[in-house]
Fold this protein.
Amino acid sequence: MDVQMLSEIIWDAEVTNLNLERDKFAIIERALMYGRAEHIQWVHNHYSPEDVASVVRLSSNLDERTANYWSIRLHIPREEIKCFSKSSAII
């Protein structure tokens, strides 16, 4: 695991305590949202396209811009992406 690289996108947890399998959802989610090209490459080297697509579909933390980009890249219909189904409350 590249501790230095992951610590750039995971600043609120001890990176050395991460388990690549157990914590893959959070790692992929952070890379998609905050990562640079080298973070994305790292994700592609360590996780399957299905793992990445699953995060895009199920994350409620992705912002719409990130989700839209990855939905286009991975050919995922917007209707299948959780963050697009959030209702916007006007207060």
The chain has five helices and no strands. The CA atoms of residues 2 and 42 lie 9 Å apart. The mean pLDDT is 91. The chain has one domain: 3-85.
